[in-house]
TrEMBL record:
Start and end residues of each stretch annotated as Disordered: 77-116
Basic and acidic residues bias: start-end ranges: 92-106
Record protein name field: Chitin-binding type-4 domain-containing protein
Species: Linnemannia hyalina
Lineage of the species this protein comes from: Eukaryota, Fungi, Fungi incertae sedis, Mucoromycota, Mortierellomycotina
Chain ranges passing through the membrane: none
Keywords: Signal
Annotated signal sequence range: 1-27
Length: 228
């Protein structure tokens, strides 16, 4: 009876330890902002005190604490199918929940995914600099691999979303995931990167933020950007 009781206590204690890691295990990153404007030129401060967001991903809810959307429902990150991520859906499978994420499919018209409870669409021009922000979510520490953030921009103007395979042919930037501000809060640590808008005709295009946490474990955020 003593051995049985001891074993039961050990099992319960072990489960308690593992459950305490669940929030961190569920924390994956996403594009918090597609068009971040710094308050001071040349000073890359990604915190809310260092600038403001003027363009967001599709159906990005406003009024949330930075980096908190992994605990919301639906959460923010969309994880692609790990079996074959190069042919997975690029933006969302429209299944909200802890393992899949928010709905970032294209709206018809695209403007329906912006305004009201959601952030505004990014409006830019060829040659402009776009700066994208994301939360570290505990993955920018020294011992984590520094997988690059891929930025893909469709060449299809005012069109339906292209496939992930086509997006991979239209990579316009590879950003340093660990380009973050110093912070003792590794979960909500602000990070980001900037790139130039390439030559495109005037119109609305799909922009994809794509990042690999572990091998073939890809997370994406999709946005419409209007090039004027």
């Amino acid at each position: 009876m003593v051995l049985k009781s001891s074993f039961t206590i050990l099992v319960v204690a072990t489960l308690a330890v593992f459950s305490s890691y669940t929030p961190q295990a569920e924390a994956h990153s996403w594009a918090d902002c597609i068009d971040w404007k710094f308050n001071k030129a040349g000073n890359q401060d990604w915190s809310d005190k260092g600038g403001k967001c003027t363009g967001y991903a599709r159906r990005f809810p406003l009024g949330k604490v930075f980096g908190s959307l992994d605990s919301a429902y639906p959460n923010r990150h969309y994880q692609q199918d790990r079996q074959n991520p190069s042919t997975a859906l690029p933006c969302s499978d429209r299944k909200a929940g802890a393992t899949r994420g928010s709905d970032e499919t294209r709206a018809n018209p695209p403007s329906k995914a912006y305004g009201g409870e959601y952030g505004r669409m990014t409006v830019t021009s060829v040659g402009d600099t776009l700066c994208v922000r994301w939360p570290a979510k505990n993955h920018a520490q020294v011992f984590h691999p520094n997988h690059k953030v891929q930025i893909h921009l469709s060449k299809s103007r005012n069109a339906k979303d292209i496939s992930q395979q086509e997006l991979l042919k239209n990579t316009i930037a590879n950003l340093n995931y660990k380009n973050c501000n110093p912070s003792s809060d590794e979960d909500h640590r602000p990070c980001g990167g900037c790139f130039k808008v390439p030559v495109r005709a005037k119109g609305i295009y799909l922009l994809q933020w794509r990042w690999m946490l572990n091998q073939d474990e890809w997370y994406t955020s999709c946005a419409d950007i209007e090039i004027k």
